[in-house]
Write a structure and sequence with these properties.
Largest sheet: 6 strands, mixed
Number of domains: 2
Helix content: 10-25%
CATH topology of the largest domain: Trna Endonuclease, Chain: A, domain 1
Mean pLDDT: 86
Order of helices and strands: EHEHEEHEEEHEHEEE
Structural class: alpha/beta
CATH class of the largest domain: Alpha Beta
Number of strands: 11
CATH architecture of the largest domain: 3-Layer(aba) Sandwich
Distance between the termini: 43 Å
């Protein structure tokens, strides 16, 4: 989807575009800029998501309010490329690929001097006819987030209703469609590997009780091993689909804590 608008003043291009999408009035309310993240240290749900957005090189994040007090759920990553006439196709493809893989937000808006590109990151980029992937890797942070996003390594949903969970998207075919094997990469930022292995298996067991037609207890992670340096771990699981299944390899790496 593409929206065009006139370049009246270069300094106001981004504001003009935000206004056209109805977002400009939400600055400081639901729209926050990554460069200002330290100002929101008192609001963990905002600060954490701005910190995460910075890893994707986004410039701002638009949120919706969650059901809990002071809970903010990211909806749109905003990229400011107003220093160039048109966004580069290769850059758009890379942004789409990374944000879709991470599953952090359902939409991306890229602002250039002459247009706004809106990317639906709940869906992968369509490959050319005749080209099919050999292997698919989904990446998630551990913890993934707070509130509604806490269990997103296993399951979750975007506000649009599309699945956002790591294992879940392999089950639905949003990831690894038609493939017999794929993988999840986990970036462990807090707690140790054994903690996350136990917690994630409990989430799967809970889901199997809640939705026994969709989830099974034997989809839990097994063959769990931690390397001698405690730098990484790996395990395996199976994810059942409506007509078949896919084998998943789980590689988790420890992210060093900044001192």
């Amino acid at each position: 989807m593409v929206e065009s608008y006139n370049n009246i003043s270069e300094a106001n291009i981004l504001n003009e575009g935000l206004a056209q999408l109805g977002l400009e009035s939400d600055k400081g309310k639901l729209l926050f800029f990554v460069k200002d993240k330290d100002a929101y240290a008192h609001a963990p749900s905002i600060w954490f998501q701005l910190e995460l957005a910075e890893l994707y090189h986004a410039d701002a994040v638009f949120f919706k309010k969650g059901i809990r007090e002071n809970e903010y759920i990211p909806q749109i990553y905003i990229y400011d490329q107003t220093n160039i006439p048109l966004a580069n196709t290769a850059d758009l493809t890379e942004i789409h690929k990374k944000v879709w893989t991470g599953g952090e937000v359902p939409l991306v808006c890229v602002f250039s001097k002459t247009e706004i590109k809106i990317l639906d990151t709940t869906k992968p980029i369509e490959l050319q006819p005749g080209i099919r992937p050999l292997y698919c890797i989904e990446a998630k942070r551990l913890p993934t987030g707070i509130g509604e996003r806490e269990k997103e390594y296993v399951y979750g949903f975007f506000s649009s209703g599309s699945p956002s969970g790591g294992i879940q998207r392999f089950k639905t075919g949003d990831h690894g469609f038609g493939l017999p094997k794929s993988a999840l990469l986990g970036y462990v930022e807090t707690n140790d590997f054994s903690y996350w292995h136990n917690v994630i298996n409990q989430w799967i067991a809970d889901k199997a009780k809640e939705l026994p037609e969709e989830w099974k207890v034997n989809e839990q992670l097994h063959e769990f091993e931690v390397d001698s340096t405690h730098a990484y771990s790996f395990s395996r699981s199976i994810a059942y689909r409506s007509a078949n299944s896919i084998e998943l390899f789980h590689l988790w790496v420890k992210i060093p804590t900044e001192r």
